[in-house]
């Protein structure tokens, strides 16, 4: 089995027509330049075969090979990604957005950069009571850093925050690893199974999931690294324009999360707020 965080790559290793336990649906939006693949793993046997948890995985790929956030299709793409995310969300209660990773290491900075651009609203009702906030969802954001920086597992910090703010849903945003270099910086995966930070680069930390957090956990990730070589020659490889790919990816994911969580606001509204 290849080492990858992407269910779309793992599912290529089996024949889904004869194996069972996996359903795959693929749609293409030509106007937006997006391919959307929805994978549902619904048996434990299939989960073991694929090395992925039972649940739903949505893989969104830019078919033109770019995640350029200045494209004329950026707005439509963000709205479509938000629609896929909304399908996995529970609409009630507070949502905590967690930007996982180390912002000082460029390929690992997707999560923190995304969290920077989340429209946090939880405090508005208490601090600005004169405002009409009835259409706003309660959203807060946190950047837990990594174990080497804080000495605390990110999952422990996020669980503590969840309990303090009463979050019903966690959206965890992180960088991923992939096997196919064609997916680097041009693919977004959304899953309702949670995430084990660092698992794609053999540095797995405590998982973030409904079981460990006590709140529904949706993971959103973008592959930024891939394996190259083996044994003593093994290394993690990232594109030379990774700084641009990470920035664009964080812009896409943050906008999609904001649109999904604040349906009363438009793309233009959110741009003006963040």
Q: How would you summarize this macromolecular structure in one to three sentences?
A:
Helices cover 31% and strands 24% of the residues.
Task: Walk me through the structure.
There is one protein chain. The chain is an alpha/beta fold. The protein has a single domain, classed as HybD-like (Rossmann fold). About 30% of the residues lie in helices and about 25% in strands. It contains eleven helices and nine strands. Strands 1, 2, 3, 4, 5, 6, 7, 8 and 9 form a nine-stranded mixed β-sheet that branches. A hairpin with a 4-residue loop joins strand 1 and strand 2. Helix 4 crosses helix 10 and helix 5 crosses helix 10. The longest helix is centred in the C-terminal third of the chain and has 20 residues, at about 240-260. The termini are far apart. The model has no long low-confidence stretch (mean pLDDT about 85).
Sum up the structure in keywords.
single chain; nine-stranded mixed sheet; globular; alpha/beta
CATH H-level superfamily title:
HybD-like
Molecular shape: globular
Stretches where pLDDT is under 50 for at least 5 consecutive residues are: none
CATH architecture field: 3-Layer(aba) Sandwich
Number of strands: 9
- Largest sheet geometry: 9 strands, mixed
In percent terms, what proportion of residues is strand? 15-25%
List the helices and strands and how they pair.
Blueprint: H1 7-10, H2 16-19, E1 22-29, E2 34-41, H3 44-50, E3 55-62, H4 74-86, E4 94-99, H5 110-116, H6 124-127, E5 139-142, H7 147-150, H8 154-165, E6 167-178, E7 187-191, H9 210-213, E8 216-228, E9 235-237, H10 242-261, H11 267-273
Parallel strand pairs: 4-5, 4-6, 6-8
Antiparallel strand pairs: 1-2, 2-3, 3-7, 7-8, 8-9
């Amino acid at each position: 089995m290849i080492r990858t965080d992407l269910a779309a790559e793992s599912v290529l290793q089996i024949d889904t027509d004869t194996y069972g336990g996996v359903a795959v649906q693929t749609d293409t939006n030509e106007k937006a330049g997006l391919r959307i693949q929805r994978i549902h793993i619904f048996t434990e046997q299939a989960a073991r075969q694929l090395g992925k948890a039972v649940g739903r995985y949505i893989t969104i790929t830019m078919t033109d090979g770019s995640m350029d956030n200045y494209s004329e299709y950026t707005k439509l793409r963000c709205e479509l990604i938000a629609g896929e995310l909304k399908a996995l969300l529970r609409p009630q209660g507070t949502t905590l957005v967690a930007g996982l990773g180390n912002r000082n290491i460029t390929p690992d900075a997707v999560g923190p950069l995304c969290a920077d651009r989340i429209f946090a609203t939880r405090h508005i009702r208490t601090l600005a009571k004169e405002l009409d906030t009835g259409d706003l969802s309660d959203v807060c954001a946190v950047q837990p850093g990594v174990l080497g920086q804080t000495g605390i597992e990110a999952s422990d910090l996020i669980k503590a925050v969840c309990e303090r703010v009463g979050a019903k849903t966690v959206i965890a945003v992180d960088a991923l690893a992939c096997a196919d270099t064609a997916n680097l910086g041009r693919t977004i995966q959304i899953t309702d199974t949670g995430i084990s930070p660092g698992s794609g680069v053999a540095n797995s930390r405590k998982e973030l999931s409904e079981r460990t957090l006590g709140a529904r956990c949706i993971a959103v990730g973008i592959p930024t690294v891939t394996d190259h070589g083996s044994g003593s020659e093994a290394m993690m490889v990232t594109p030379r324009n990774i700084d641009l790919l990470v920035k664009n990816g964080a812009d896409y994911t943050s906008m999609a999360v904001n649109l999904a969580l604040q349906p009363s606001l438009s793309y233009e509204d959110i741009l003006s707020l963040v």
